[in-house]
Every structure is written in structure tokens, then in C-alpha cells.
Amino acid sequence: MYDAIVVGARCAGSPTAMLLARKGYKVLLVDKSSFPSDIMSTHYIQPPGVARLEIWGLLERLKATNCPAIDEIDFRLEGASFAPPPPAEGEPPRPPGYCPRRTVLDKLLVDAAVEAGAELRENVSVKELIIDGGEVTGIRGSQKGGPSVEEKARIVVGADGMHSTVARAVQAEEYNTKPSLSFAYYAYWSGFPDQSCEIHFRADGGVLSFPTNDALQCVAVGGPTEGFHEFREDIEGNYMKVIEGIPSLAEKIRNAQREERFIGTNDQPNFFRKPYGNGWALVGDAGYHRDFATGLGIADAFRDCEYLVDAIDEAFAGKRSIDKAMAEYETKRNEIAEPLYDLTTQLVSGDPPTPEQFIAFGLAMQKMMPESAPSGEGANA
Ligand SMILES: Cc1cc2nc3c(=O)[nH]c(=O)nc-3n(C[C@H](O)[C@H](O)[C@H](O)COP(=O)(O)OP(=O)(O)OC[C@H]3O[C@@H](n4cnc5c(N)ncnc54)[C@H](O)[C@@H]3O)c2cc1C
């Protein structure tokens, strides 16, 4: 019997398991993948996410992986330069962003969970939940190429991504839903002349270019979802055509070498799910999903697992009823996420992006910064 079983061991599941284990709980962390392994993502960690890595004592490990810090972003709206305003007086300094490969970040997170005392089982696919009298009490699944698995816990946390098996099993209610609005394709390039970062937002789509591990550059092209099928007819040709529209980036990519295949999707639903119920909780994309365009998913997951672990701890320690603690988790999540969600979905709605939207976005993101500000060098870089 575990205190918690966490299903999914990436940026929502591993920190949830780590923080629970650090509080002394007995945690089982399962994933159908093994680590290190990749997942579809352009993986830019927004500053509030970096601040949390620092508070958790993991930022130095990330820095040691040869992932460059992103102190400056060349940001263009409809081709015009845009500089987000600096933090207001009294606000904590913004740490730099980082864009680590998911093979690197997720392995670092899963290792930290194990180090904290969580038991990790890789290659375990959860098929269903054990439900007794309306209460979730465990999981059933199978080990790849091995026996079936059945385990019990006081709470089962679904950190298993937007198509969450846990959410489906408990029929978690969805609200504030919006359909997929955009698509994206990205690839990794070597031989860029610098490690600069640029973001171009336009009504007809966007381009992101981020430096990542091993001196590679992750370059993504996106557009409204209506254009997805036409784009797929000639992915490389259409990708390069969009980049040719940005002469500074086109110049860099012309002499670069593509190192991996193009990866893309238009599966970008926008929704909130009720993130708790009798014996279960959801965190990360399983509980809340927004279009990838504003690069929020990782920082959102880090924030929400802190809120969730506080709620579980308060309930298990008898300080509050589980319903009250979990209701506060949902309220805190939504208060911070909703303005960013609205802006994200507006930005990919096909209307020209405005500087005011980005200023509002920056202000809303400042609220995502952890309450206890990080103290180390990363915060002031
Ligand atoms: C194209 C694209 C670009 C993106 N770019 C960015 C970006 O630049 N910055 C950013 O912050 N976010 C970005 N995101 C979003 C980000 O990748 C996600 O928000 C983030 O990965 C969510 O983390 P998670 O841990 O909740 O879920 P996931 O990363 O999806 O992890 C879920 C885990 O659960 C496991 N799992 C699923 N089902 C089961 C099961 N039944 N049994 C056992 N294990 C299971 C999976 O194997 C997986 O390891 C992007 C997304 C896309 C699609």
C-alpha cells in the first residue's frame, strides 16, 4: 500500500513524486516509457519554471547538461521588434529561460524523484483504476513484456498527459474547452552560427528558434489548424517557405544541417479538467491543456504539482479535509492559469497579435513566479 501512485513520470509526474517523497510519503511512480526518452515538445521552460527548478535544487544539474541559458529573446510581432517590459519595482527578478531536450530534462526530473525516495517502475502501462464503492484505490496495468501489475494507494495522481487514462477512467469533467486552433512542426539543426533565440508571432502563424543541448537549435513553425493538411503535403518545403519569410533566420538555417526528422501535430485541444475526486487527482496536461504556442506547459506543470502536493500533504496530515484542500488546488491553478489560457487561445485565433496582449501575458506570467523567490545565481542572471 502506497500513500500515492503517480501515473506518468515527466514534468508533472516526477516533481509531484519528488515533492511527496521529500515530505516522507511512500510514492510509486509509473510510466509506460523508460528514461531517458523523448516526447513531442519544443521544451522551452519559462522563467517561473526555471525558478522552481532552482528552489527544488535542480537548476545546477540542468546547467551542467550543456543547455545554454536564454537571457535575451529577439521577439517580433508582425515583423516589428517587441521588448517585454522589465519586472516592476518590488517584483522578483526573472531568471533566464532554458530549452533542454526532453531526453535531458525528464531524466533529470525522474532521477530526482528516485533520489527523494520514490519507487520508479518504467515500462508499466496503466490500463484501468481500481475503484471500490466509488473511491479510487489503485491501478491495474501491465509491465511491458512482463506480468500484470496491481497496486493500491491512498491517492492515484494522473500525470499522464492530455489524453490521460486516469482522467478518462474517472470521467473527469472538462470545462472552458476550445478546439485545437493551431499546428506546429519542428526539427533540430546543427551548425547555427550562434545560440540566439528568436520568436516571431504573426496572424498567420509563428516561428520559434531556441538553442538547446549539444549545440543544436530547435526551430519550430506553426500556423492555424486549417492549414495543417496542406502543410503536411510537403512538410520540408512548407517549413522552409515560412522560414524564407524571415531573412535573418533563413540566412542561419541555409548553412545549417538538419539532424532529426520533422515532428509535428495539430492535436492541441484547449481545456481545463476538474483535477480531483474521490481518491484521485490530475496534474500537468492531464488536468489542464493549452495550445503549445506560448510555451507554458512545463512551467504550468511545475507550478501545479507544488499546489497539488501542498493539498495532499494538508489532507493527509489531517490539517484540512481532502475536499477543501483539493478545491483550493483547483482554485489556485485556475486563478493563475485562466488569464494565460485566454491570451494563448486569442494569440492563435487568427487575429493579428498586439503588443498589449504580450504585455498582459508578461504580467500574468509574473504571477506564476513561486512565492518563495529563488535565492541563487540563476535568479539574478
Ligand atoms: C509541439 C509541442 C511543442 C511544445 N512546446 C512547449 C514549450 O516550448 N514549452 C513548454 O513549456 N511546453 C511545451 N509543450 C507542452 C509540453 O510538452 C507539455 O505541457 C508537457 O509535456 C506536459 O507534461 P506532463 O508531464 O503533464 O505530460 P507528458 O509530458 O505528456 O507526460 C505524460 C507521461 O505519462 C505517460 N503515460 C501516459 N499514459 C500512461 C499510462 N496509461 N500508463 C503509464 N504511463 C502513461 C507517458 O508515457 C508520458 O511519459 C509543447 C507541446 C507540443 C505538442
Which hetero compounds are present in the coordinates? flavin-adenine dinucleotide
CATH superfamily of the largest domain: FAD/NAD(P)-binding domain
Q: How confident is the prediction overall: mean pLDDT? A: 94
Low-confidence stretches: 376-381
> What's the main sheet like?
8 strands, mixed
Summarize the helices and strands and which ones pair or pack.
Elements: E1 2-7, H1 13-22, E2 27-30, H2 47-55, H3 59-63, E3 69-70, E4 74-77, E5 80-81, E6 97-98, H4 102-116, E7 119-121, E8 124-132, E9 135-143, E10 148-158, H5 165-170, E11 174-178, E12 182-190, E13 198-202, E14 205-211, E15 217-224, H6 228-232, H7 235-244, H8 247-254, E16 257-258, E17 263-265, E18 270-273, E19 276-277, E20 280-282, E21 288-289, H9 297-316, H10 322-347, H11 355-366, H12 377-380
Parallel strand pairs: 1-2, 1-10, 2-7, 4-13, 10-20
Antiparallel strand pairs: 3-6, 4-5, 8-9, 9-10, 11-18, 12-15, 12-16, 12-17, 13-14, 14-15, 18-21, 19-20
Helix pairs in contact: 1-4, 1-9, 2-9, 9-10, 10-11
Flavin-adenine dinucleotide (FAD) is lined by residues 7-13, 30-33, 39-44, 125-126, 159-161, 165, 184, 265, 284-286, 292, 295-299, 301.
